[in-house]
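Suppose you are handed a protein chain with no further information: no name, no annotation, nothing but its sequence. What can you learn? This example shows the usual starting point.
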Amino acid sequence: MLELLDGFGINTQPQFWISVVQIIWINVLLSGDNAIVIALACRSLPARQRVYGMVLGTAVALGMRLIFAGVISSLMLLPYVKIAGGLTLLWIAVKLLMPEEDAGSRTDSSDSLWRAVKLIALADIIMSLDNVIAVAAAADGNFALLVFGLGISIPAIVAGANIIMAMLNHFPLIIWAGAGLLGWIAGDVIATDPVIVDFGAGFGAGVPAKVKLVCAIVGMAGTIGACLISRARLRAARLDA
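A reasonable first move is to predict its three-dimensional structure. Written in structure tokens, the prediction is:
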């Protein structure tokens, strides 16, 4: 393996492996919310497709991190970008909590698989700013190290998602808790948009932090409330039919 890495021009001195461990550890620590998204997105897939969904979703998500590693940190500083991202994440949270048939995905299991992969990748892009920044810093500009570290961290993220998915079968309440967490994160993302931060700062130094907390609570409550209303309407429509 060392010869293979050397063949790609990768320095395999001790510092290389220290950086690799740092990248893996950062991914494990910061990917808990991503594992929840993967588990929720794949829970309705046929048993044989769940592993494919988790692996493909994680691989696509990590691939998107590589693509955006150089631009996402500056992109997220632009006004209204985080607001749009947070609203998209709210939509994803509601979609993940809705019954599979409501998402129109019963027609083809392959459609369900790719729907799960797309939701995982989109949510990962929005939620992983902290992850991208931390991993890029650990790689210290070494793109080969970044690719290698992210690549071998896939099993850890998939294992975490697999554990959560197994728990979903015994504790369905975790589904609602996971969706609520995504709503909380979405509110947090919206509140950290430069437009919101600057507006809150105009009322005092401590206001942005309070706005951030309120947005997170509203995002969590709004996600669960929207899901409850949508499910109630779905049940009513079934009874009328």
